Protein 1
Amino acid sequence: MTIDDDAALIRPLRPEEAPLLEDFLLEAVYVPEDFTGQVPRSVIYDDPMCRAHFERFGALPDDRALVAEVDGRVVGACWVRTTDCYGRLDDSTPAFAISLYREYRGRGIGTRMLRRMLQELREAGYARASLGVVKANRAVHLYERLGFRIVGDGFDETEWLMVCELAAPE
């Protein structure tokens, strides 16, 4: 299946779609390429910092989410929160989560979602955004191309904490 990145509609998450964030958080769990098993769904429920990415989404004032839709089906999500989750820098910096179903990766859809969310955060007056990413994840290069820089280890030594400055240069 060939998907042109322009075929994906990027739009705000509808409130009734918030449960999809659980599915997309599971998709966001880094899986090494040589892993052949199934990631258990319990990984997103057993870890409070994972749950913080989706529990009561929409209840916090900084909750924002976009989805990618292809042929009427939501195939990806990009969302931010300022809560105690992975990728958290501080209380005022939105932390990203993003993922796409595997068959839609590598087609520019995630880049479009990230760019749009970064623009929305700029327009809303945020100074920066953050994310946590496993050091071995190839997406590190995508994040760097979009303006994120590594500021140190994330939650532990396997993860980078990355920050994107959103303020316009003087």
Note: The radius of gyration is 15 Å.
Protein 2
Amino acid sequence: MSSIELTPSQKSILTALINLHRGSEDAVKGEEIAEEVDRNPGTIRNQMQSLKALQLVEGVPGPKGGYKPTATAFEALDVDQMDEPASVPLSHNGETVEGANIEEIDLSSVHHPELCRAEIHIQGSIRGFTEGDTVTVGPTPLSKLVIEGTVDGTDDTNNILILQIDRMEAPVGESAH
């Protein structure tokens, strides 16, 4: 875990930068980040100066310029930087969410089925998700786990959906690991 302490605003902006950069691998314009986090582009430019000073982002000059996250940015957010992460699909109200991938699934209170919840850590934006929406996660690459649930809350800063689990299923038999 990194020793860099970020404000919630810096964390949100850095997460948006990483998600947008993953989608294109190009430098990300401040206006795109501003739109993603619903902030003023001037605020983003100011925050980027402090993130540059922390060596979390690098500026790319020129007409195709913008910002790119550094390896330290991934460490600061405790995000794995992979060339080709395994694909774990996500659907929202029956529609596949393009450009989103599941990074981690945390199950809590599994011993109380009526209270069973999951925290779904997403690479990609969770802006369109609201309480009461239906979400399907999976199948996961190894265990083929599929989770269906209802959004109970969101953590926009950390890109986490909190689901009330309605159905969880994994095929019986040999898993791939």
Note: The radius of gyration is 17 Å.
